[in-house]
Amino acid sequence: MDWHQLWIIASAPDNVPIVAMLFLVPIFTWMGIRQARANDRLIVRLEGDTKLAKTHHRKVEPWRPGWAKELHVWPYLVRIEFLVTLIVTVILFVWSITLNAPLEEPSNPNLTMNPSKAPWYFLGLQEMLVYFDPWIAGVVMPSLIMIGLMVFPYVDSSPFGNGYYTIKQRRFALGMFGWGFLMWIMLIFIGTFIRGPGWIWFWPGQTWDHNTVVFDKNVDLHDFIATSAIGKFLHLGFLQSTAGKAIFGGLVVGGFYILGGLFFHWLMTRGGLDRFDGSLPLTRRLWLWITTKDKFESKLLARTSLLQYLTFQFFAVSVLLALPVKLILRLALTIKYVWVTPYFNI
Amino acid sequence: MADSPEATDALAKREPDVPAHDPIVSWSTSGIMLVCALLLTFSLAWSLYDEAIGQRPWKKMQREFVARYDRYLNSIRERASQGEDEIKNSPEYQALDAEANAAKEKVQPDIDQINAEVKKIQPKLDAVTEPFQNQRGKLTVINYNIEQASGGAKEKYRKQAEDKRNETVAVEMPDDDAAGKIKVVKMDYATLEKTYNDLREQKAKLLGDKAEKSRESQELAKKRDDYLKNHLTILTPSQIDGVKKGLKSFDYSILGHQVSVNDYNIADRCEVCHLGVRSPLTIRAEDMAPGGPGKDPDDLARAFVSHPNKELLDIHKPDRFGCSSCHWGNGRATTGEEKAHGLNKFWLWPMFEKENTEAGCQQCHSKDRVTQGAETLNLGRDLFSQRGCMGCHRYEGFDRETDALTNARQTISQLEDQITANDKLGRQDAAAAAEATDDTDARRLLAHAESLRVTNSLLAARIDQMNLQSKYLMQDQKKVGPNLKDVRLKLAKEWIPEWLKDPQAFRPGTKMPTFWRFSVDKNGDHEIKAISAYLWQTGFDGKTPDQQKGDVNNGKDLFETKGCLACHSLGAEDNKVGGTFAANLSKVGEKANFEYIVRWIHNPRERWAPYCPKHKRDLTADDYKQAGKPFVFDTELHSKCPIDGAELQVQNMTVMPNFRLSETEARDLATYLFSLSSRPGREATAFMDDPNLKEQGRQLIKQFGCAGCHEINGFEEEQRIGKELTVEGATPLERLDFATSTQDAEQGRDPLFKELFPDRKEKEWYTHKGFFEHKLADPSIYDKGKEKAPQDRLRMPKPYLTDEWRTALTTFLLGSVGTEGANVPKSLFYDPQDQRRQDIQNGWWLIKKYNCVGCHQVQVGQRSILMDLPQYSTPEGKDLLPPRLTSEGARVDPNWLLRFLHDPSLNGGQVPAATPAAQSNAPVGNAPQGGPQSGDKYPAQPGADRNGVRPYLKVRMPTFNFSPNELQTLVRFFMALSGQQEPYIKEQLDPLTEQDKLVAREMFTSGTPCLKCHITGEPAHDAKAIAPNFLLASERLKPEWTFRWLLDPSQISPGTAMPSGLFKRDGERWAVNLPKPPKDVADYHGDHARLLVRYMFLMSPDEQRRLLSASPAPPAAQPAAQNAHAPRRRLGSELGWFRAEKTERRNTVASLRSQRPLARAPN
Predict the structure, then answer these.
(1) Which residue among B21, B37, B347 sits closest to A105, beta carbon to beta carbon?
(2) Is A111 in CB contact (< 8 Å) with chain B?
(3) Segment B624-633 mean pLDDT
């Protein structure tokens, strides 16, 4: 374990936000989940007690006698916001005094630094360049992600969960967003801690040696298949022709979209494991989870319009599924492109 | 949140009830709020502190500086006032003071009177000035209106102007007669103007008179004050008080101490902390010690010192260059030492460490061979060329001859192409002209064809010039190492593998680096065998003529006196004597053949066989025979290939010059060298004759780049194998391959630490400096731990370098950054456009190439190797040193110098015996021609055993076989160094009348018996002479210089034997300094010294004989056997006499009249 290097990376003023994020993201996720679970418990209780639901005013806990019936923004919210302002200001003060801006000296026009890394918030994008064409990774994907984030509220057909944390009522939406967010953070983490000189993959603790040599031969999927033993046996050499590979890639990508769509369709109505009796063995519950639909989720799906449904499917398959699939193809199977055409490569 | 309309109504009216135990409402935030508020206050305070103090550490330093400097000034204040008093009390100062005061008093009455008159005029002028200026102003406005107006309006304004001129104004004039009274006078404009101008003129005249009258007294006062200023070693007390006063109002800021040069985008704030750099007083670290002046200095005290070289700062004024231009570092940063010195990771120009400071010079002075004052850098350059670095590494400017030769050859082939193309075009034109239907067209085409023919003839002339240049360049091309084609002739066969294994073991400190690969590679021993085999099998086959052993003692004497030690050394380690320019010769006997060494000493340039670059092989006697030519080759007449006339390499490519020794002397010298060691028994090396090994050897020689330094058969046109280093210092650090040492370098683990810097702290060496130092100390370091095939390993061998040398080379490399890498704009680079400074730099390349500084002092302050040898350290030894060349250009006629450098024997290429003046070589079976003496195997050389100017010196100026290019460069160098004009046109001297001759002759013989020391050409007399012949003077010297020399030789050449004070100032002329000069001399009213110069320059052999006969009786004639050409023995026996004379000479001027020989003339 190269602690010296880990310290160099972690202590770089550039990387302070990322290191902080390593702690802050779990903490806030945990806090959100905790709140959501409390709300979920409340929802169960209120659903079972209509009288209480009538008198209930405050969201965290059911109201109890002796408590204020209502809480005003002033001072009860504002004072907390003010406190946070103070704390954040102190943090910023101390940060700015102790760590100088990570500005470097005049650049040397004769030399590109190695590794040459984007600012931390773009590292995810930079890491994506490993898996996709620059055009896809740099333009198409970011656009899809941004449009997808904008579209999310409109493809949501659930009337629940507005203004309070809940898992139970927004299981699928939360899952999808959480998955996307986690993926993004992972890419940034990889970019910061894993990618060393030459953008080579260094496992944590491995020394970033400028002279490291790796053998990394990536092939396109059609070549991979055509040159494999099976491909040779089946005489699949035609896959390597221009038309062959375009058609083959199109079919694979089309198939991916269909399978991906089916997968999300299936996933949408799964609900939580907790809908089964906890006394059943886990394997049994898992089997039931896989094979049966959740009523609540099914209702939600039924409320969804076709346009909403297809829009969601497109973004989900194109981003949420394509990215991890391509990542695995590339890192584990050294597949470069799936679909090679004279105009674009995917 | 209301659930019903009732509740909503109630909401508007009631106050929220606040239960005491509500988890939110009853939660008090005041405690945490207080803590946060305190934290915020604290962090605000912290940020203010950081802004004001934390980010401005220099403030503290400035306060510290003021305190310490003030303390130091106080400590010297008393000494200064004592010093001032001392000077003021000195008789000189008193005299000056009295003189100044007297002059002042003398003119005081006049001055007083003038002052009184001015006092009278001034009130009148004051009175008239304002009314006049008012009127003038108004008139100017009216005039403008006239100019602008048109028609009738013009007239109106003219009228107005007229009225204004006639208008009278009242002027309150002081009354001359009644003091203090005012008289009102009415004046019109004309009167006003005249009065005003008259008064001003009067006043100006009076003031002019005053200045004229007081000038003398003011000049005297200034002289007195200057005397005080120049004699004070430190500042005057009043100056010190001034500095102290300045400290009181010290500017605690950045801008007050910033150097900013807008033109070059320099903003250096170094002096914000380094406050003493430009102090008028020289501040030393001890002066600023924290405990008070003279105590132990701390880091801060060391930061406050003055710049160590004020002269350098005068040339490179910080106001123009800043600091970071030379020193590097980040001139703008002020927040900390690391940042300001640019030692942080990303700064491209980290400050040079102290021992490498001169790297900064190299940035701008990269074209210099010698940069004044940069001794480390100069040493680095010397090493780079002399130790053979440039054999493998190209460095722009260093390999001048080879580069120029390549260029010349390219130019020739381009010109030849052009001629062919022109020929073709001409023929086409001619053909087209024949077909032309139009006369004009035909004429035009024919004219064009003709112009092409003329162009071709011009091009052919250029090719001729280029060919001549190639010849000269080939003549000047040298190799660092010996010619390995000679191995069979020169070396003991068995010694070669031993040497290759570890040259440093056989000859510590040799230029030949250690090829560490031989001990690392698995088959290293085999590689040595293969290389040895190739060299042995491709060497010249033949036999040098047999030689008998000579006289060891004479050989030793020759070795120690002829000047061999200027380049070569003898002895090992601490007993080493001599120069490091060339090899240590202690162990020659162990490795070399006696016969070869005799031949080599006799004439090192004599090549075994000429090399033809066109045929790419060494020519043989057969080649000459087939062409029907004698097997003779030399630089003068026989330098062309017998087959096709291409220029040949006819010399050994060595810088070792020809000492024009006789063969006997060469034998004696060789005998001496061979007496120092003898050949030990070695293992037989039969493998060296194995033809199978030869091819492997060829590959290895190619790989190791042996041909960079050596001439090797089959590798004559071999290119360099190393990286070009011209801009190596600018290579980004990331591109310097630290290989497996990268982590160690970054984290400060140093495998060579103990070896390199035993007295330093182990520290990070991931820097350019670290890379170069480690590479130089152990070139294999960046190969360690790498898995490589032998041929892929690093090839750089390990050179012998002392710590000082390594620092010098590192400095040189660090500064080699080119235009792009420099921290200085190109416009500030040192690129002299004037011929003089270019000539000086061009000359330095040669001075260093041939190691002229081994024998001569070329610059004041520079020491030659010979000067430091024990035999030249005694007073009499000093007189036997080769001449000082510090003012050579002013002294000698450039045309003479050219002739002398071409042939230092000055005998016009004559050979003692009647043998051809050519170097001829006798390969096997070809009996050499007989020399002048029986038993000699080699033809005697032109000018053998003869010193041209100073036969009395034992040390000999050798023949370097300079090409005309180099001769010219050297002459121009010496002329430029002495600031001489060119071209030099000899001054015409008035012819001498008989009377002049008579007077001069008497001067020559009466007071200053010049001919006692100067050579006259008479063998008996010359045996005693220790100064050059006057007959040489007219062609050798410059009259103006000779005149100055006669007046005061010791000023031109301190320590010369020529006496000073021969002439005394007599009004406007110089007269012979004799109490009772002969009558004719006394009656001659011209300048005696000038007459003597004319006499010397117009001297004829007849006149010299006449002079000689008129001289007092010469000392007892020496035995006839001793002649001027054997000065060695003579001088040895005469040293006692010489010393006695010297002592006496120094005593009095009266001793000049002594009858004994006293002095040497210009040398």
Answers:
(1) B347
(2) yes
(3) 89
* Of the candidates B697, B696, B721, the residue with the CA atom closest to the CA atom of residue B708: B721
The C-alpha angle B255, B256, B260, rounded to 5 degrees, equals: 60
Contact between B32 and A80 using a beta-carbon 8 Å cutoff: no
CATH topology (fold) of B835-908+943-974: Cytochrome Bc1 Complex; Chain D, domain 2 (1.10.760)
Judging contacts by C-beta atoms under 8 Å, the chain B residues touching residue A54 are: 3
In chain B, positions 810-839, which contact chain A (CB-CB < 8 Å)? 820
pLDDT band for position B10 (cuts 50, 70, 90): very low
Q: Do domains B484-605+652-708 and B994-1153 have the same CATH topology?
A: yes
Strand partners, B172: B184
Q: Which of B50, B348, B739 sits opposite A97 (nearest CB)?
A: B50
pLDDT of residue B852: 94
Contact of A116 with chain B, judged by CB distance below 8 Å, is answered with no
- Partner-chain contact B37 A86, CB within 8 Å: yes
In SS3 terms, B46-86 reads as HHHHHHHHHCCHHHHHHHHHHHHHHHHHHHHHHHHHHHHHH
Q: Residues B538-553: pLDDT tens digits?
A: 999 888 888 999 999 9
Mean pLDDT of B643-661: 90
Q: Would you say B338 and B59 are in contact if contact means Cβ atoms under 8 Å apart?
A: no
- Residues with Cβ < 8 Å from A222, sequence gap 6 or more? A239, A240, A244, A245, A248, A249, A340
Transcribe B591-655 into DSSP letters: HB-HHHHHHHHH-TTEEEEEEETTTTEE--HHHHHHTT--SB--SSS--B-TTT-PBPEEE-S--
CA distance B704 to chain A (A): 25
Relative orientation angle of helices B691-704 and B524-538, to the nearest 10 degrees: 100
Decide if B39 and A83 are in contact by the 8 Å CB cutoff: no
3-state SS, A101-160, equals: CCCCCCCCCCCCCCCCCCCHHHHHHHHHCCCCCHHHHHHHHHHHHHHHHHHHHHHCCCCC
Where exactly are the structural domains of chain B? 90-240, 375-387+723-794+801-828, 408-476, 484-605+652-708, 835-908+943-974, 994-1153
Beta strands in B222-380 (DSSP E): 259-261, 266-268
Tracing tokens 């008179």 back to the chain, one arrives at: B209
What is the C-alpha separation between A320 and A151, in angstroms, rounded? Answer: 14
Homologous superfamily in CATH for domain B484-605+652-708: Cytochrome c-like domain (1.10.760.10)
Chain segment B688-720, per-residue pLDDT in tens: 999 999 999 999 999 999 999 999 999 988 888
What average pLDDT does range B1020-1024 have in this prediction? Answer: 74
- For residue B1145, the model assigns a pLDDT of 38
Q: How close, in Å, is residue B266 to chain A by CA atoms?
A: 14
Q: B543: burial class by Cβ within 10 Å (0-12, 13-18, 19+)?
A: middle
Residue B1 has pLDDT above 50, yes or no: no
Contact B617, B714 (CB under 8 A): no
Mutate to test the interface with B, among A64, A67, A111 (most CBs of B within 10 A): A67
Asked if A104 lies within 8 A of B742 by C-beta distance, the reply is no
- pLDDT for the residue numbered A62: 59
Cis peptide before B290 (omega within 30 of 0): no
d(CA B338, CA B344): 6
* Window 57-86 of A, Cβ < 8 Å to B: 57, 66-72, 76, 79-80, 82-83, 86
| A 186-245 → B contacts, CB under 8 A | 207, 209-211
What is the pLDDT averaged over residues A17-41? 90
Q: Which residues of B230-249 are buried (b: 16+ CB within 10 A; e: fewer)?
A: eebebbbbebbeeeeeeeee
**pLDDT range class, residue A63, cuts 50, 70, 90:** low
